[in-house]
Design a protein that fits this description.
CATH topology: Four Helix Bundle (Hemerythrin (Met), subunit A)
Low-confidence stretches: 1-32, 34-52, 58-70
Largest sheet: none
Number of helices: 8
Radius of gyration: 24 Å
Number of domains: 1
Length: about 250
């Protein structure tokens, strides 16, 4: 019998959709500051704008990329906001799961594929390897940093592959998306996490290939640290989701 979407389920999913659009509403695109009219750095024989003296030790803020108006701290802020709405989305899914499945009369246990536990270990190793990459970057060993980033990417791709293996194992058992509420939530929660984790993989790969364009060491550390923050969040979120599925779907 196919799974019939309940009104409360539709309401929570609609709420999750609205939450997912919040970063685009709340965080406007950064606007570069307008240049002051009539002023030139070469005024008064190069002594500064408007003839004022210039501190010889002055350097532009390290939070700004060369040729870019957006500070790297802005990307960190966007990452934090993304973490907040992703957490809100999965809290919403948790509430729907508990109300529709865990306390439902048509409940029956669905054993979780054992590959999910292996995937958890792989994800924890990836968190360790990305921290090794950050340590190598702080130590000034760029080659080691690049290698650890590559290892982290490989572990991330292996995790996604393990999730696909888990889904195929469910299909082999005859558990499809619409088989029952339990299999529906199992596919929904693991699939939603995999999609958000793909963002982490793509972002880390972009940082890996663009690392050479960030000339300042502080810029490189900020970029890698921002991706590492999101990566660790996705790892912790997966551990929570696995525990949730274990105590609800497989209880």
């Amino acid at each position: 019998m196919g799974y019939q979407r309940s009104p409360i389920h539709a309401t929570f999913l609609a709420f999750g959709t609205v939450i997912s659009e919040m970063p685009a509403i709340l965080v406007p695109l950064p606007i570069p500051p307008a240049a002051e009219a009539g002023c030139s750095p070469s005024d008064n024989k190069g002594n500064g704008v408007g003839g004022g003296p210039v501190d010889p030790g002055y350097r532009p803020s390290e939070n700004f990329q060369a040729g870019s108006a957006a500070p790297l701290s802005a990307y960190r802020l966007v990452t934090i906001l993304a973490i907040i709405w992703i957490a809100t989305l999965f809290v919403t899914l948790t509430c729907v799961l508990l109300s529709r499945w865990a306390h439902s009369p048509d409940w029956f246990s669905i054993p979780l594929p054992s590959i999910l536990y292996v995937n958890t270990a792989i994800l924890l190793l990836s968190s360790l390897s990305i921290e090794f990459a950050r340590f190598s970057l702080r130590a000034g060993v760029s080659k080691h940093c690049a290698r650890w980033i590559f290892v982290t990417l490989i572990l991330g791709v292996v995790f996604i592959g393990g999730q696909i293996v888990a889904w195929r194992a469910l299909v082999f058992r005859g558990l499809h998306l619409a088989s029952n509420p339990g299999s529906f939530f199992l596919y929904l929660i693991t699939g939603a996490h995999a999609l958000h984790f793909l963002v982490a993989i793509i972002s880390l790969a972009s940082v890996r290939f663009l690392m050479g364009r960030l000339t300042r060491k502080a810029e490189q550390q900020t970029a890698l640290g921002t991706i590492a923050l999101y990566w660790h969040f996705m790892d912790g979120l997966w551990c929570y989701l696995l525990a949730l599925l274990f105590f609800t779907i497989q209880r």
